[in-house]
Amino acid sequence: MDMINGYLEALPEEERTPDPLYRERLDVCETCSRLQNGLCAVCGCFVLYRAGKTSSECPCGLW
Asked: Which of 1, 11, 46, 58 stands the most exposed, by the fewest C-beta atoms within 10 Å?
């Protein structure tokens, strides 16, 4: 998780998801049956990172 936080902190501010939206996205991911050990089973991404980029979308269309 520290590594992912480092990647998120390295993103330019305008590319980072605002905290309330980030939390909302993670809440959706945490209830998804496709979440496996922090990875999306559909696309293989680390959901903590994907949710943290404003330009990212859920591969299942959930956010």
From this structure: 1
- Looking at the DSSP assignment, which residues form a beta bridge with residue 16? 53
Whole-prediction pTM: 0.89
C-alpha to C-alpha distance for 6 and 24, rounded to whole angstroms: 20
Handedness of CA 53, 13, 3, 24 (dihedral sign): negative
Please state the domain extents for the chain: 2-50
SS3 content of the chain, % helix, strand, coil (to 5): 45, 10, 45
Amino acid at 50: R
Residue 2: both structure tokens together = 């520290």
